[in-house]
């Protein structure tokens, strides 16, 4: 957040933070959990879209959701490797001093993570995955930094065009914070059936928006105040090679551990959806449907191997890792997936489902207001996508493989 504030300034960064969470708080999606006519539940986001907007929008929603999940998987692979390399660099600097050239490749860690996920992904389902979440902030003694209300100023080494593109990229980084909209209906499905479940979900949504806004504003304001225009995209790797180095290492270890589990949380829905579709298409194929139990002697491991699952899941992990190896630019990946998911999943589908369910007629003031918000968020997402694509080009231009 402090890195985004460095490019957008206090006014721009904080204003966007408040606006995007206010839009999230509108809770239009919470009202799409049940059909207003029949009261039938929609257990997933895609079911809600299919019931309200039809089959074509159902397909579009699936593409948007799975694109977001795959983007997150690639980003998690990159982030975990960055954290592990940071630990190695920290120990190198601690032993040899900060003048030493401690440059290490991310590739071995990405490959190692891929091998680990290949094995873990063979479990048919993973009901509970992911460990404790460590919300960490660096508390380092800093010296005075110059900050501005409008972010990093144009001058030597930074043209107006470069600042504009990086501001757009910062938009995408901030929009990814709203990605939980993709699972909001699934969360709502955990509430007990009652007449007030929508009211309960709206209260939860309001509290979530307030807490997220407050948390991100604190990160942005204090981080920017501490580091100013030199704020780094990843604080743990940008300024994390000083004492106490063990504390930074611990934070990076927890990040890597969390991402290993979160990887499976994201991939399992993709695996299950694809395998369910394939089984319906070819129900008599032994390659697809037959399960082979695994045992060591007389010991049953309670694990079955399915050749289709083994082949397809391994290929998925390999392709995801190859993409992560080809695009080792964490901030650019973060911005791009934020751009493509925010407008579609947080704004477009909820707005159109709300209009359809409440039968809001065209050319009314309410309809114009919703469509104006829809258009504004679309333009913001397009700007963020353009900024992240430009960032990919810039990163590829200066990237030197290790």
From TrEMBL:
Transmembrane feature ranges: 66-87, 206-227, 247-274, 310-330, 336-355, 367-392
Question: Where is it chiefly localized?
Answer: membrane
The organism's place on the tree of life at top rank:
Eukaryota
Which cell locations does it reside in? Membrane
| InterPro entries in the cross-refs | AA_transpt_TM
The chain positions of domain Amino acid transporter transmembrane read: 27-389
**GO biological process: one example:** amino acid transport
**Keywords in UniProt for this one?**
Amino-acid transport, Membrane, Transmembrane, Transmembrane helix, Transport
Pfam families for this protein = Aa_trans
A single GO cellular-component term on record? membrane
Q: What's the protein name?
A: Amino acid permease 1
The record lists the organism as Vitis vinifera
Origin organism lineage: Eukaryota, Viridiplantae, Streptophyta, Embryophyta, Tracheophyta
């Amino acid at each position: 957040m402090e890195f985004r504030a460095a490019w957008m300034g206090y006014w721009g960064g904080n204003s966007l933070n408040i606006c995007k969470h206010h839009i999230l708080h509108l809770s239009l999606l919470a009202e799409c959990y049940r059909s207003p006519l029949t009261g039938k539940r929609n257990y997933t986001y895609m079911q809600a879209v299919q019931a309200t907007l039809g089959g074509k929008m159902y397909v579009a929603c699936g593409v948007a959701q799975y694109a977001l999940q795959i983007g997150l998987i690639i980003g998690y692979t990159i982030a975990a490797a960055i954290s592990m390399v940071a630990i190695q660099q920290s120990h190198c600097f601690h032993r040899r001093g900060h003048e030493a050239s401690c440059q290490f490749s991310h590739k071995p860690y990405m490959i190692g993570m891929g091998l680990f996920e290949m094995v873990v992904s063979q479990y048919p389902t993973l009901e509970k995955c992911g460990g404790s979440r460590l919300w960490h902030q660096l508390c380092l003694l800093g010296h005075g930094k110059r900050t501005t209300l409008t972010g990093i100023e144009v001058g030597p080494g930074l043209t107006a065009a470069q600042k504009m593109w990086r501001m757009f990229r910062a938009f995408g980084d901030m929009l990814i914070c709203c990605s939980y909209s993709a699972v909001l209906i699934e969360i709502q499905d955990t509430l007990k059936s009652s007449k007030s479940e929508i009211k309960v979900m709206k209260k939860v949504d309001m509290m979530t928006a307030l807490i997220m806004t407050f948390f991100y504003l604190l990160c942005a304001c204090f981080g920017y105040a501490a580091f100013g225009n030199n704020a780094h995209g990843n604080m743990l790797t940008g300024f994390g090679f000083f004492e106490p180095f063990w504390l930074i290492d611990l934070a990076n270890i927890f990040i890597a551990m969390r991402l290993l589990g979160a990887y499976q949380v994201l991939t399992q829905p993709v695996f299950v959806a694809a395998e369910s579709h394939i089984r319906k298409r070819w129900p008599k194929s032994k390659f697809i449907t037959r399960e082979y139990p695994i045992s060591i002697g007389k010991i049953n491991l309670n694990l079955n191997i399915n050749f289709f699952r083994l082949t397809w899941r391994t290929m998925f992990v390999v392709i995801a890792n190859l993409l992560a190896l080809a695009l080792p630019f964490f901030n650019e990946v973060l911005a791009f997936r934020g751009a493509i998911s925010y407008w579609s999943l947080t704004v477009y589908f909820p707005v159109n489902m709300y209009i359809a369910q409440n039968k809001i007629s065209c050319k009314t003031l309410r309809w114009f207001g919703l469509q104006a918000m829809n258009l504004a968020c679309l333009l913001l997402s397009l700007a963020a996508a353009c900024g992240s694509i430009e960032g990919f080009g810039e990163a590829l231009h200066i990237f030197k493989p290790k």
